[in-house]
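The following block was generated as part of the benchmark described in Methods. Ligand: zinc ion.
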Amino acid sequence: MSATKRRVAASVLLQLALVAWGGGSASAIDDYTLPFYNPAVALSFGVDRDRTVGRQLDWTGQIWNDGVPHPGRVYDQHTGVDYPMALRSDVAVARDGSVIDIEGGFGTSQFGAFGNFVLVGHPDGRRTLYYHLASAADGGILVDPGDTVVAGQPIARSGCSGNCSGAHLHFELLSWSSTANAWTPADPLAERRWTTWPGRVPFLAAYVRESNAGTEVIRVGQTITHWVEFRNTGGRTWRSAGAVGRVALATWNPAAHASLFRAVDWPLSWMATVVDVASVPPDVVARFTFGLRGGPAPGSYRETFNLLSQSVRWFDHARLGGFYIPIVVSNMTE
Ligand SMILES: [Zn+2]
């Protein structure tokens, strides 16, 4: 078979494998995630679900007839959710989608209305709006209209542009109302739209340790066992099976390449293993155990891995710490 034909065959197989392994859809109230990374960020004001001036309905269902702001709950006529955070903090998109519009012309702390913003459309027909962002010169806007974005992807940095009295992110979840003939704000807290609480992006991990952090020496044809541990620093529970939250260790750079070190226990040529235990909640350390086989000719190699959630969503490899295994394949016998 020619090299070209081999590549074509491999890509067809890869697509089949992805279809077979992916699938499933997120449940109704697990479909958005908080739009930032820092778990210490706390809500300052939520949406006022009552449009009558002077009367407020907060995200917990409590009604206030006094018209004054209630920190942690609501202020009158507020259309979004406010999260105070330091200038130039990362802002993450709350769901997969595509960027509809941006504004980056304001200074990081400059008056206006929305100030700098990003508006994103989502497959469920809703939109999310992020405003008071940092200036373009401060790296405030990281996306362009038309860009495809993935839940948890950094899209902007926070600022205090527009009508803003202290650095914070104003986040809106918008639904089209045919009666109002306008996009109208929904309340993601009352609707329990968040994937996580407090704020976490869905799928993040931090490297912890390995069975052998040095070079693995494997004889030709021999299989050794290797394990690596990651802390679940994201907001979703990792699972070893099922359609939602399944997490695997797979080859990287390039993504999903067939590994020369595939052992018989690998589910796929590019997937070493799924997480060892059935369920790994946020902040818990999880182990991934798999075989490495001395498949290729003797020599020095390096195999790089990334984590992958169901529906083929790669983790942020830079944040994950660039996990790779130096491997020497040896033809020495014992
Ligand atoms: Zn606000």
